[in-house]
Amino acid sequence: MRIGVTGHNSEVIARQRYSGEDERSHPVPANSDPDFPIAEPTTRKVDCSVDLPGGGTLAVEVKMY
Fold first, then answer.
1. How far from 60 is each of 6, 15, 17, 37, 56, CA to CA, in Å?
2. What pLDDT sits at residue 1?
3. Could you tell me the pTM of the whole model?
């Protein structure tokens, strides 16, 4: 019997694979990038957050098509 992978299951698999945490909000500063400008500071909630050595964060978005 084949078990299907759902969107939620794929997020759990990503957290296990990358030793990540549940969804967490990350600050997104305003910028004037010509292709993707952000008018005012906001936050972005990602599927899997991985804290990196040195204080950085890997923000993983999981997509199922």
1. 17, 9, 11, 21, 13
2. 47
3. 0.67
